[in-house]
């Protein structure tokens, strides 16, 4: 992945919004929120004006006018520059075609979960599955609401998020089935480890192998 002059994904959201028409930051935020982009891009609204300033500093957007509405503070209207449009399109192509290295926290937990006992992991997975099911239901409801006002073309990221969450829920449900039925390979050894403190033979062998390669 390229190193961007302004690498915050909020910058991409701003550039895409300004591609529609010039506007001031408050308008940008309102439009992004109404389309659910704050969730899709993990936007932190407190950094909005900082990102706008950085985009302007690097010539990706430029101020076109300032206006005042009654007693409200003066608002600067920005538009995207040719350089900003080129940056946005290049960034989009990279994001859609490239595989960025991602290390979700859940994956990190899975990699060392054997240090918790099977029964506790089962309880934790049930908690996660309930949360996933709730999120999937609420996201589906939100998507249905947005589709009444916004074209599907600009909501595909929500569909993608739903598909990923649904796949995760299905996987967690299947692992729970193996753990609760006792069909998970190595489950007995895992349980014995937490009863006796003795590492399963396969794990002990891996540890020993690692210590002899130093």
From TrEMBL:
What the entry lists under Pfam families is as follows: PadR (PF03551)
Source domain of life is Bacteria
Ranges where the Transcription regulator PadR N-terminal domain occurs: 14-88
In terms of PANTHER family, this protein maps to: PADR-FAMILY TRANSCRIPTIONAL REGULATOR, TRANSCRIPTIONAL REGULATOR RV3488
Q: What is this protein called?
A: PadR family transcriptional regulator
């Amino acid at each position: 992945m390229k190193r961007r002059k302004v690498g915050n994904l909020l910058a991409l959201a701003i550039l895409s919004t300004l591609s529609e028409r010039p506007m001031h930051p408050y308008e940008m935020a309102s439009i992004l929120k109404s389309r659910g982009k704050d969730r899709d891009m993990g936007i932190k609204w407190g950094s909005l004006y900082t990102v706008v300033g950085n985009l302007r500093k690097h010539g990706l957007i430029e101020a076109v006018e300032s206006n005042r509405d009654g007693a409200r503070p003066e608002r600067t209207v920005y538009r995207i520059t040719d350089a900003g449009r080129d940056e946005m399109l290049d960034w989009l192509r990279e994001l859609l075609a490239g595989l960025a290295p991602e290390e979700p926290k859940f994956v990190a937990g899975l990699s060392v979960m054997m240090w918790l006992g099977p029964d506790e992991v089962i309880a934790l997975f049930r908690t996660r599955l309930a949360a996933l099911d709730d999120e999937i239901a609420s996201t589906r409801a939100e998507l249905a609401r947005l589709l009444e006002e916004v074209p599907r073309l600009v909501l595909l990221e929500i569909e993608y998020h739903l598909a990923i969450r649904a796949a995760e829920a299905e996987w967690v449900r299947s692992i729970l089935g193996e753990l609760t039925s006792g069909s998970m390979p190595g489950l007995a050894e895992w349980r014995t480890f937490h009863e006796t403190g003795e590492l399963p033979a396969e794990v002990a062998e891996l540890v020993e192998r690692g210590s002899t390669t130093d």
